[in-house]
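Hi Prof. W.,

I finally got the Large ribosomal subunit protein uL4 prediction working! I wasn't sure whether to trim anything, so I left the full sequence exactly as given:
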Amino acid sequence: MKVAVLDIKGKETGRKVDLLDEVFAIEPNNHAVYLDVKQYLAHQRQGTHKSKERGEIAGSTRKIKKQKGTGTARAGSIKSPIFRGGGRIFGPRPRDYKQKLNKNLKRLARRSALSIKSKEQAILVVEDFNFEVPKTKDFMQVLKSLGLENKKSLFVLGDSNNSVYLSSRNLKRSEVISSSELSTYKILNANNIVLLEGALEGLQSNLNK
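And this is what came out:
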């Protein structure tokens, strides 16, 4: 699949690159996509939630009333879960939410997500660019030239570029990552994917295994 390479002004450079059908034009596997997105969201959870159970509540251990003759249910501790301020029954405990997926399934999920975006014509290939100094204004001009100023966009770089990254950091609708950070969730979460020319070779060789 041939795609025209654009410059940062949104104009065609006259060059075309070949996007592999094995990466950008497969039949999407929806279940693989679901599992990969589910794993990504699970890994965002800290798992530090905790509530005190009756054994951890500070309070008196004396029997709060006599066993019989009160006309109410017997009660032995003020820390009982049935009383206000008592411990919580089966409360949350710290846990690790990480899930394991094999590499082949994760590659399939990313190829499926890229194929979905390719079918929607939401993938742009732009020649490599850089800024002399980080400026949000310059990055916004690139977005405007590409017609992405009001859309959620994901820029994928071949190598980490500090000036481009810092220029985009204040923009809520745009994210800049390196090709090694690309995930199924990030692909699907963006309206448009902007692949820099230098990222293509490594991205395609990594996913086409």
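Strands lie at 2-6, 12-18, 123-126, 153-157, 174-178, 192-196. Does that look reasonable to you?

Thanks,
D.
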